[in-house]
Design goal:
Distance between the termini of chain A: 19 Å
Strand content of chain A: 5-15%
Subunit structure (chain A): Heterotrimer of A, B and C subunits.
Largest sheet of chain B: 9 strands, mixed
Radius of gyration of chain A: 21 Å
Structural class of chain A: alpha/beta
Order of helices and strands of chain A: HHEHEHEHEHEEHHEHHEHHHHEHHEEH
Catalytic activity (chain A): L-glutamyl-tRNA(Gln) + L-glutamine + ATP + H2O = L-glutaminyl-tRNA(Gln) + L-glutamate + ADP + phosphate + H(+)
Shape of chain A: globular
Largest sheet of chain A: 11 strands, mixed
Radius of gyration of chain B: 30 Å
Number of helices of chain B: 16
Distance between the termini of chain B: 56 Å
Shape of chain B: elongated
Bound molecules: zinc ion
Number of helices of chain A: 17
GO biological process, one term (chain A): translation
Number of strands of chain A: 11
Family (chain A): Belongs to the amidase family. GatA subfamily.
Number of strands of chain B: 16
Structural class of chain B: alpha+beta
Strand order of the largest sheet of chain A: 1-3-2-4-6-5-10-11-9-7-8
CATH superfamily of one domain in chain A: Amidase signature (AS) domain
Largest interface: A-B, 46 and 30 residues
Helix content of chain A: 25-40%
Strand content of chain B: 15-25%
Oligomer: heterodimer
EC number (chain A): 6.3.5.7
Helix content of chain B: 40-55%
């Protein structure tokens, strides 16, 4: 049986029906990782022993009828930004190369509680800063569909491991598009939930007001089933929402008749938008129309400010969040021998110069500058004001439509190294995704077939805050209408 | 001070540790004196992914304090990050409050140390909550540069109470701090133990001089971490003199030199320049995205107001107006703290007269507490028992001096009731006739005293009282004196 061709929910069903044990499934995927990952570099850590031990426990619990979760026994890959007490957490950084957290992220703990089996930790841009997984201290991840291209970022390992069939489900994080963009580049589904829907406790912070854990999967059912486990209030995260978690899977079958879909004019008409991506969005629009939806033209007037706003807010918060990596308490330290002046300052400066990569340093500098006394009002404060305008744009739009449709990225997966010398070009790739983070609303990336060059294409849907059920419902209906088929890249 | 050629201008920043059982943003204990790094968790260690969750108790205590200090309380308060690098600051920023503190402008009245019965007022700028940092311990013995960090204190809730520069003398600053400490202990919001660092003060000091027809201000100096009342008084007095000398030498005025930070060397009795942890003091404050702004409800304010209890200023007025005590006596009782005031009130409630209670507390009770190093809560003589004695003295059943014998007896035998104490000490009432014959006896035995008194030297009467007590310990000294004097005059 080719387990990589099953969705996580299907695999869960087989495990629950005892057609296959969790141990067999886990072994199967671990073996695929062993066989394939040398070429993809999706994993930075594989926890074979702990995964097998855990799968035995789950098998035992299943045989005595103790686990009721539909994903019990199903392997899952975790982005290395999520703290795990049984595996290292490096965040793709030399700074945390040997860091072993003494605790586990709430989101991961929820998955463990439901009997999922973490296979290992997936590669990512350093501290989730980047759009190509090339800034990782562990080296770049490759796109299984074209090994000379990036899988996207920063959850590049999380999307690549799915595309190569090395895991049936994976968990990423999305600060400005870091789940949706790699999902789009790798031909899988990715969900960024409403800000606060999933606990951030144990998610290593990049930009606290934007970060959100999000699942990546082959099917919309898998996203719904995993969100069901991940979502909910956490008393350890003050920003987590104290709202009931709906039954996401129950909503999937709802017909789309009467649905109002807004097509984002600024996104569809954007000069940077690749023709094939544009065609994919138009195909999605037609499909929704065929499913009974009304299509409306919607405008998000502040779209052009979203990238600059994002690149002020996110680095500002990051400059604070990354201050703790000073070489004092844990993580990377470079000694201050032969330093002029204060040994302490030299130690901190050297640790940070050598522990962080170029992109992280660039953003720390940007954030430090934007928050500094003379520039706060001109940059940080202004960015917060514009952020409000952007959120208002979405609110306005959702006054007349239920979901918004547009592209995820301007173009399909770009080549490795292509944007590395041009950070601004790299930042512009986030144009269509950062809005959802700035507004705190949920958005989903869905596969939309392949380009003529054989690269995955994708479309994006947005919903109002806490509108995940509706969002997943629409996405599921599109999937059911065979808008896309889950596919695994063949690595020869 | 008036003889000085300058006006001293002082503002105090007082850090009071709030009496919460757990830290400001996590559940770790705040108990003092535990072995290093035993009261820590991922949150207070600032580990990657850990998130702060506000301690509601700290909010309650801060509100109670703000109301007692007549502060303006806005309906919304928020948290900010204050960024700086220091080894005992695990996150690289301190969570504090910048532009929306929990308590706004207020004031505190306190007894003028130089004019008994008069009050002085210090205006308060604000009081804000913040987390404490850890403690660095440097061991440089034997040429080692060995530093260790104890993070037990990290995250302990502090209320920083900032005054306007309204104090004009070191004594006034000390008196303000004394009243503030008294208020905080009455409110039960802080134990204000200065040895354990639960109350620390920084003093901002400068001088205003009349020079060539205009008022000149010297550069402000902040004297850090004053941890005793004596230190506050001495440091300010020293600093005033030092600034005056410096001004005579350099003529430097405010604005011509940056604000300086100095430390107080208690042993040497001097202030010494301190290198700032943060060279430029650009803390790059910005709203902490991990904590949502906090709404203060009317109900919270009402609850806090209900928990204020009787404040020292009100208690002083009550003791003066309702109990008829002199301002000085009322202040002594109230300044001993809520425990002694409660003891006073219990004595009054049991029927003893206020003036007698006041004098017994001030002379006997407080002396005993001091000698035996006791708190009033541990004082062996209950208020009920002492009240019985004082009522008996008021009624003339026991004379005041025999009452002191009972008091002494009770210190060792607190279980004895008044009758038992009296019989153990052989106290019985003596009738007037008996005293009269005793006095006659004494005059016959001491003709030289009679002659002295007749010459107008009344001192000799004292020796007669002593002799009378030897013959009959229950002889009321006042009556003996009175009768002897009358008889000698009659002999005249
Ligand atoms: Zn803690």
């Amino acid at each position: 049986m080719k387990l990589e061709l099953l969705s996580a929910v299907e695999l869960g069903r087989k495990i629950a029906a005892r057609e296959i044990s969790s141990r067999e499934a886990t072994t199967y995927f671990l073996d695929r990782v062993d066989f394939l990952d040398a070429r993809v570099n999706a994993f930075v850590h594989v926890g074979r022993e702990s995964a097998l031990a855990l799968s035995d426990q789950v098998d035992q619990a299943l045989s005595s009828g103790q686990v009721a979760s539909p994903l019990a026994g199903v392997p899952v890959a975790l982005k290395d930004v999520l703290c795990t007490d049984s595996m290292p957490t490096t965040c793709g950084s030399r700074m945390l190369e040997k860091f072993q957290p003494p605790y586990t992220a709430t989101s991961v703990a929820n998955l463990l509680q439901a009997g999922l089996i973490p296979l290992g930790k997936t590669n990512m841009d350093e501290f989730a800063m980047g759009g190509s997984t090339e800034t990782s201290f562990s080296g770049a991840t490759r796109n299984p569909w074209s090994l000379e291209r990036t899988p996207g970022g920063s959850s590049g390992g999380a999307s690549a491991c799915l595309a190569a069939g090395m895991a049936p489900l994976s968990i990423g994080s999305d600060t400005g598009g870091s789940v949706r963009q790699p999902a789009a580049f790798c031909g899988v589904c990715g969900l960024k939930p409403t800000y606060g829907r999933i606990s951030r406790y144990g998610l290593v912070a990049f930009a606290s007001s934007l970060d959100q854990v999000g699942p990546l999967a082959h099917t919309v059912e898998d996203l719904a089933a995993s969100l069901q486990l991940l979502a909910g209030h956490d008393s350890r995260d003050s920003t987590s929402l104290n709202e009931a978690v709906p039954d996401y899977s129950a909503e999937l079958e709802r017909p789309l008749a009467g649905l109002r879909v807004g097509v984002i004019r600024e996104h569809l008409e954007h000069p940077s938008l690749d023709a094939e991506v544009r065609q994919a969005v138009l195909r999605g629009q037609q499909m929704l129309k065929d499913l009974g939806a009304t299509i409306l033209d919607v405008t998000l007037p502040h779209t052009e400010y979203s990238v600059p706003t994002y690149y002020l807010v996110a680095p500002s918060e990051a400059s604070g969040n990354l201050s703790r990596y000073d070489g004092v308490h844990y993580g990377f330290r470079e000694k201050a021998e032969n330093a002029e002046g204060s040994q302490l300052e030299a130690m901190i400066a050297r640790s940070r110069s050598q522990g962080f990569g170029a992109e992280v340093k660039r953003r720390i500098m940007l954030g430090t500058f934007a928050l500094s006394a003379g520039y706060y009002d001109a940059y940080y404060k202004k960015a917060l004001q514009v952020r409000r305008l952007i959120a208002d744009d979405y609110r306005q739009a959702f006054g007349s439509v239920d979901v918004l449709l547009g592209p995820v990225t301007p173009r399909p997966a770009f080549g490795l190294g292509e944007n590395m010398s041009d950070p601004v070009q790299m930042y512009l790739e986030d144009l269509f995704t950062v809005g959802a983070n700035l507004a705190g609303i949920p958005a989903i990336s869905l596969p939309a077939g392949f380009s003529e060059g054989g690269l995955p294409l994708a479309i994006q849907l947005h919903a109002p805050a806490l509108g995940e059920a509706r969002l997943l419902n629409v996405a599921y209906q599109i999937q059911q209408a065979r808008f896309f088929e889950p596919k695994i890249a063949e690595l020869s | 001070m008036t003889s000085m050629p300058y006006k001293l201008v002082i503002g105090l920043e007082v850090h009071a540790q709030l009496s919460t059982s757990t830290k400001l943003f996590c559940g770790c204990s705040t108990e003092f004196g535990a072995p290093p790094n035993t009261q820590v968790c991922p949150v207070c260690l600032g580990l990657p992914g850990a998130l702060p969750v506000m301690n509601q108790r700290a909010i309650e205590l801060a509100l109670r304090t703000g109301l007692a200090m007549n502060c303006q309380i806005d309906s919304v308060t928020k948290w900010d990050r204050k960024n700086y690098f220091y080894p005992d600051l695990p996150k690289g920023y301190q969570i504090s409050q910048f532009d929306q503190p929990i308590c706004g402008e207020g004031y505190l009245d306190f007894p003028d140390p130089e004019a008994p019965g008069e009050m002085l007022r210090v205006r308060l700028t604000r009081a804000h909550l913040e987390e404490d940092a850890g403690k660095s311990m440097h061991d440089e013995a034997g040429g080692k540069a060995d530093s260790r960090i104890d993070l037990n204190r990290t995250g302990t809730p502090l209320l920083e109470i900032v005054s306007e520069p309204d104090m004009r003398s070191a004594q006034a600053a000390k008196a303000y701090l004394t009243e503030l400490r008294l208020l905080l202990t009455y409110l039960g919001v802080s134990d204000c133990n200065m040895q354990e660092g639960s109350l620390r003060a920084d003093a901002n000091v400068n001088l205003h001089l009349e020079h060539e027809g205009r008022t000149v201000a010297t550069p402000i100096v902040e004297v850090k971490n004053l941890n005793s009342f004596r230190a506050v008084e001495r440091a300010i007095a020293y600093e005033a003199q030092r600034q005056f000398e410096a001004w005579k030498k350099t003529g430097q005025e405010m604005g011509q030199a940056p604000k300086q930070t100095r430390g107080w060397d208690d042993a040497a009795g001097v202030t010494v320049p301190q290198r700032e942890k943060e060279e430029s003091s650009d803390y790059r404050y910005f709203p902490d995205p991990d904590l949502v702004p906090l709404r203060i409800t009317q109900q919270q304010l009402d609850t806090a107001r209900g928990e204020l209890g009787e404040l020292p200023a009100v208690a002083r007025r009550r003791l003066e107006s309702s109990e008829g005590l002199k301002a000085y006596d009322a202040d002594v009782i109230v300044s001993q703290g809520r425990g002694v005031l409660g003891y006073f009130d219990a004595l009054i409630a049991a029927g003893a007269s206020a003036k007698r209670v006041s004098s017994w507390i001030q002379q006997d009770v407080l002396r005993t507490l001091k000698e035996q190093n006791l708190e009033i809560e541990d004082f062996p003589i209950t208020a009920e028992r002492l009240a019985q004695l004082l009522v008996a003295i008021d009624a003339g059943d026991v004379d005041n001096s025999r009452g002191k014998d009972v008091f002494q007896y009770w210190l060792d035998t607190p279980s004895a009731n008044l009758e038992q104490a009296k019989s153990a000490l052989g106290i019985e009432s003596v009738d007037r006739g008996e005293i009269e014959s005793l006095c006659r006896e004494l005059l016959e035995e001491n003709p030289q005293v009679v002659a002295q008194v007749q010459d107008g030297n009344l001192k000799g009467l004292g020796s007669l009282i002593g002799a009378a007590k030897k013959k009959n310990p229950n002889a009321d000294p006042k009556l003996v004196r009175q009768l002897c004097q009358a008889m000698i005059e009659a002999m005249g």
